[in-house]
Amino acid sequence: METKNLEIDDQLKPYLRILGVLSVVLFAIIPFQAAVFFISPPPTTAIQYFALFQKNQFLGFLDLDLSLTVDNLLFILVYIGLYFLLKESNRVIVTIGLVFAIVSITLYIISREALFSMLTLSNQYSSASNETERTTISTIGQTMLTIYNGTCFNVSYFLGGINLILFSIAMLNSNIFTKITGWLGLIMGILMLVPPTFGKLGFILSFLSIIPLMPWLIIIAIRFFKLGKQNK
Questions:
Q1: Which of 230, 232, 224 is nearest to 16 (CA)?
Q2: How far, in Å, CA of 130 to CA of 153, rounded?
Q3: Contact at 8 Å (CB) between 224 and 19?
């Protein structure tokens, strides 16, 4: 279904064009991170991470979701753009959705405390002078990994699903995005209601959620570009 031409505030147009570029960047980040996961599966213990950081710092950061952390930060800008486009006809839904998005991404960043801390711990472990120091450092590192996929991460992931559902409902009720855009987002949001840490089911659903995410990002990128260039 074709969407109607809309009058877009001139001040918003440059931002929408930037969002078009960001959506393409987000599209590229996701398969990159997936490829890293399959080529170099993340270590399971703190000591294994310490060894990885001593061997290849960049790969250590990637295995601790550096690219997905950047991805989440960029998504804040995308959701703000969606809010401005959808707020006139769906103010309550998208306001709640935006709040959930910000809380979700904030919790995600908090859960990734290990991202840079593990490098510091790795260096300390490498220079430790005795076994007692190494044991203490490895215990701290293992605690970091427990927090990494703990409560903050799981709540973040769940709220991210709710946020996508709310924005998708707003898309389905508007004439700004096509129905397929809303349905893809809705499917993605529902699949994200089960965090990947919830056993095999969560792991499978997290990868299945990538299937609608990829075309969704391209579709909204195209729409952002069109709305950003639209003449009155």
A1: 224
A2: 34
A3: yes
- pLDDT tens-digit profile of 125-177? 999 989 999 999 999 999 999 888 899 999 999 999 999 999 999 999 998 99
pLDDT per residue as tens digits for the range 49-105? 999 999 999 999 999 989 989 999 999 999 999 999 999 889 999 999 999 999 999
- Given the structure tokens 């950061």, which residue do they identify? 61
Q: Return the residue matching tokens 């804040």.
A: 76
As a whole number of angstroms, the distance between CA 29 and CA 47 comes to 28
Which residue's structure tokens are 């078009």?
20
Calpha distance 209→231 (Å, rounded): 35
Cα(18)–Cα(14) distance, rounded to whole angstroms?
6
C-alpha torsion sign, points 91, 81, 154, 188: positive
pLDDT at 136: 95
Q: What type of residue is 172?
A: L
